Fold these 2 entries.
Entry 1:
Amino acid sequence: MRIAVIGGGPGGLYFAALVKRRQPEHQVTVWERNAPEDTFGFGVVLSDETLGGIEEADPELYAELAAGFARWDDIDVHLPGGQVFTSGGHGFAATSRRRLLGLLQERCRVLGVELRFQEEAPPAAELARSHDVVVAADGVRSRTRAAAAEVYRPELDERHCRYIWLGTDLVFDAFQFHVLRTEHGVMQLHGYPYSDAGSTVIVEMREDVWRRAGLDRMDEQESVAACEKLFADTLRGHALRGNDSRWIAFTTVRNVTWSDGTTVLLGDAAHTAHFSIGSGTKLAMEDAVALADALHTHASVPQALAAYEEERRPVVASTQRAAQASLEWFENLEQYLDQPGWQLAFNLLTRSRRITHDNLRLRDPGYVAEAEQEFAAAGTPPMFTPFRLRGLTLRNRVVVSPMDMYSAQDGLPDDFHLVHLGSRALGGAGLVMTEMVCVAPEGRITLGCTGLWNDEQRDAWARITGFVHERSGAAIGLQLGHSGRKGATKLMWEGMDDPLPAEQAWPLVGPSPLAYRPDGGQVPAALTREQLGELKEQFVAAARRGAEAGFDLLELHCAHGYLLSSFLSPLANRREDEYGGPLENRLRWPLEVFDAMRAVWPGDRPMTVRISATDWAEGGNDTEEAVVIAAAFAAHGADAIDVSTGQVVSHERPAFGRSYQTPFADAIRNRVRVPVIAVGAVSSWDDVNSLLLAGRADLVALGRPHLYDPAWTLHAAAEQEWSGPGVEWPVQYAAGSRRPQTGRRL
């Protein structure tokens, strides 16, 4: 084959060398517009996984690289006030970018790759007419991608920080994070060694801080001098140097597809991931291995390109999620500066969600033990520490999330609900929440929803709370709500959000006459002021019955597009009276309902509020609005905010992923200074411990894991070999408190 490579960075060169090594008869040409000795940046960090792939794919290149690696194990976190926290056992390897490129260039020459430096590559479409494969490794500002944007359909997300890539002759002995509080705002330095003669230094800050500091008006030399002055203590008298260094706003690149005919994107042209997890060169070189393998093992180029993308896309997506979490953490670093130093350091180390509490304990058990000691007691898993809300002390930090069961008749909970909630209370959780209990028949989502609009329902709930109190050490919470414009739908397993037949449905109400499903859903009637007063009284009456039924905690459901949630969202609330318009007005009626319920709810029992912290839709509520909403409820006496997201509009576009909703809880907790319950794709006890120890949440609610395993909390204790406070096996189940053997030896 004739193969053209556009771009002579690490990814393009490595691919060229690999494909030529595999099949020397291929004609491989690399175009690079810069000179061979030109390079930007300083050091490159490679993971053990990437190095293993290099060793397997090209042992000769690996041997050359390994001979000059800088290696270290520690991460140092330097905080304002001089606090330093060190975590070991991480294992890094780095080399200079210039050395890496030199080795790759020489490897290409030895293998017979044609290298054309200081020569602009012809357009990919032109090269494709004379080559079997065109590999576009032309970087984040890829001309190839731009020329065929209608095919690749790129999404370019420019972020909110500015950073500059510099070097120094100070050789760091660890990966360095330095947090600096200045009169202009928070700045941070990322630093790591790449040889026995120098280190990479990246200075980063939010754009508004960058502008206030006047750095936007400085050239390279002035910027270097300013950074030297700002981080003089870190540099200990050593100088910084630039290399065509500029202040950059990081751009996250994603593409719907990576290939166009026989042209394929590689590395930053296809995808980027923030430098704070050291992934750009790593991803490009891993792409090179996968693409070379695919071309070698598949019969046709289209099959090879499809296989390459199929293999790499999930890996890249996972890395990009971790990188996104990391970059957003640094964008919002200022919100954590009031955390205790030990917690801020742990928070930084676990920011990407890839490094966790248990993972850190494997790497550096002493570091984690010290953090646990600060949190509660060394050796105690954070999830098994108690938490107090008003007069209620929960035995541990695990919450069984509210989950609709759609199994009631006329709103009446029955034996199913007793077994469902009772089994999860016996399963060890600190707090078990009911599903959304509706305050009126017309407030149900489905015909199977439970209610609390009459005394018969109150007495049925009292039977359940009595069982929980008598037979377990759990608390039980009541979530009250009204379906609003999302009511009168079929049971979930019959068609989620599908409207009931007209003869079974009831009229819907909402803040405005806007259907949840524009494709045929019922249009709600806009509520009058008189109706708002009547509805408020329904909430109050249900709260009274909840107290009489013996619930320990009351939660007001202001999330997921139900009635109170739709008042909060500008996408559902188009009113022109005092309950619509700006957020202050949209908050008014939900706060009135909360105040009225708080007035009748016992003073020693806590009240929480569940909110959708983002609508996941343009023009809707997002983090900033969520902070205001949470602060308003906290000011009115909410003891905690239960932070969920979405389900407010049918055209939402959620960014699903592991613990994808927790950053919103994190922002509310650390900006509003109110306890929060985190929810959303949290499935492991390790994640629960990580969120708590990092100070991103006070309680963690899990739904699906408790459907899979009603005794999830007890099993989490067994898996951590924990039998101390915070966990109590029912005496009837005590024989099962250790993991069963999975096999026997003769």
Entry 2:
Amino acid sequence: MGAVRVYLGLASKGRDIPPQALATAREAIESAFPVPAEVIRADEWHGGGVSLFGWSNEPDDSRLPRLLHLDGGRIVGVNGHLADPADVSRLPDDSIGGAFSAWIARDGELTASTAINRVCPVFYAETPDLHIVGSRALLVHLLAQRADRIDFDVLALQTMVRQGFFLSDETPYKGVSALRPSTTIAIRGGSRTISETPLPVAGSAPDSPRLKRAAIGELAEALLATVEPLRNAPEPVNLALTGGRDTRILAALLHAAKVPFRVTTNGLDTHPDVILARRIAAALKVEHTVIAPPQTAAKDAVLVEHPLERAWETLRTCEGMTSAYESIVGYLPYSAKPTMSGQSGETLRAGSLNLLQTDLGDKALLRRINNTFYKDEKLFTAEANEHARELAKPWQARENRLEALDHIYIWYKVGRWQASARAGALRRGDPVRPFLDNRVARAALSLDQGWRLSEEVIYTLILRFAPQLREVPIEGKPWRFTDGLKKRWPWSHVPPPSMPTQKSGGGWSWRTSPGPDLTAVLREQVLGSLDALAPIVNPDEVRALFADPVVKKPGTAWHLYTVAAMLTGLYPGKRPEGLEQITVSRPDPGR
């Protein structure tokens, strides 16, 4: 599939692009591309008033389309991948398959386009002389700056402290914005236009088995198209399989598409994940490997990396758009081995925000929207809260609350959080993510949110692709649509009862139970940075947050720590050195 590709387009408002801008682009890439400098390959194209740069850590240009691809009279770059590389000639076209953004240059013209979930982002800014468009926000900012410094949009960072990612089209950098989903930015003759295609409006839920099958057909075809190129992969796809919903549909999908694959599961033989994955593998006749967790003596404490090292790597990889609370996949050399996991499967089930709801009443759904945008108001300044409320208004105004929460998931949870966090994994290669595919997302969003939320859609797809899985239970909660469902005729089918999730016992995490020593390190950094944080947080409330020996809201503490470290200049810059590891004690060592 691929790896990280970085693109930068420059379009002059006058005649020529200043030579200094070209030199800055070549120098700045080492700060903006989170891989070792020695593995970066570069290509660039220059025409009348337009330049397009491309960089990659792919070892060669064998993956199609090439880094900068000549297509007729234009130069095309693809960040991400196309389901069919021949579709490069159709770009920009948000109806084709793949997870990508498109970059196109010719004399006097530069365009960049996002797909439906903007999981391959486009950022843009302008100066008096230039329009700047790029796939890394920091790179765009460094090109837009007159001085060699970073100017942060501190007010925009209120959402980072609140949620750990962006619930807006803002970035940490002044003047740099993220392009919306299914949107094209075009600069012609020095003038910029932005055109957006709205997300699909879902049709009504079908009310007969025949209509249901027909409605699911487009989604099934889109899913099959995502794995079609894998039939010719040099080795079988490795699928991480659990007892849950999202990886099960991928196993069924690979089976239906006749793509060679094997599955691996982490856990002990007695765990439901292993038991159910073994049954799935046997039913589909595929190789199954169980990776048992290391059996270590019970520990009362663990040693962890210093938070400043963790924050530096997260800022470097995710550009200040993901909290160091998250565990970002570390760098490893590029590998072409095809791997697959169930990331973003919630797209087929109306999004994670709807899935969190037990009450689907209008007031409860509106409360979910409000809490998503402006929870923990006491912690924030009046200006930060007002900013958050303004961001929420367009979503509050939507009459269809299920649709609003579904689209918030696509716009922000996928389009900002995952787009940022997945940069870590992409450095190693490009894991196959069928649920992120442009056609799949478009087909899913076209189906009624309530119907998708019932899980009947994903269940029907599993049996459509692999009817052999009909009697294999699901782990955890029962399928939602089975509530009250009874066998009406001898030939009718009711899914088997679910297998309860097994509590692992003792599965504490040092991130969520930070202990006094780690809390002290987080506290010192945050309280020492209150002047920088002052525009968005209330100092007394921050002090109260850290008043106890062990912080009670570790997620918020990490979000604050990440933003504080960024605002006080941790990155760009050299990796911190000489920091001692921190001891985190288990809160209940007797258990």
